[in-house]
Amino acid sequence: MTALPFPQQRRARRAPFLTFSTPHQPLTAVTVTETTQVLVADPGWLIRHGRKLAKADPARAAQHGWTPRTPMTESLALTLLLAEADPAEVAEQAGAYGLLMTSVHTLATRTNDDSTIYESETTPGD
Questions:
Q1: Which of 18, 69, 83, 125 counts the highest number of beta carbons within 10 A?
Q2: Domain that holds residue 100
């Protein structure tokens, strides 16, 4: 492993009752996004969970396109699930909803110029 030197800092100039120092660079705003890829491992389990959510809160389910006459699909069930729970919670509990998490992609970019400062992709078991 190669050690990298820290940038040298200038010493503050001191005068009686005054201290001058070099200004610090402003912090750069950073945007971090995390994308979780999941597969539907058990469509029946996901659909049952979607029906349970729709029955528990029909008004909220209606906001997402569900009616009592609408057949529950995998897509609608996942929509209702994501409307109910935080996406990170869904990813953590994927198996309980009939889902299988396949990968997580993390990307950090500087907001001012969209340059990538960090990127990683992991799969469960890595």
A1: 83
A2: 29-122
Quick: pLDDT tens for 48-91.
999 999 999 999 999 999 999 999 999 999 999 999 998 888 98
Six-digit token pair at 54? Answer: 């729709």
Q: How much is the pLDDT for 26?
A: 54
Q: Which of 76, 78, 80, 75 is nearest to 94 (CA)?
A: 78
In a domain, 22, yes or no: no
Q: How many distinct structural domains can be found in the chain? A: 1
DSSP the chain: -PPPPPPP-PPPEEETTEEE-PPPPPPPPEEEEEEEEEEES-HHHHHHHHHHHHHH-HHHHHHTT--TTSPP-HHHHHHHHHHHS-HHHHHHTGGGGTEEEEEEEEEEEETTT--EEEEEEE-TT-
Q: Which residue has the tokens 């940038």?
A: 7
Residue 92 lies in a domain: yes
Determine the Cα–Cα distance for residues 97 and 109; give it in Å rounded to an integer: 32
Instruction: Answer yes or no: is 111 within a domain.
Output: yes
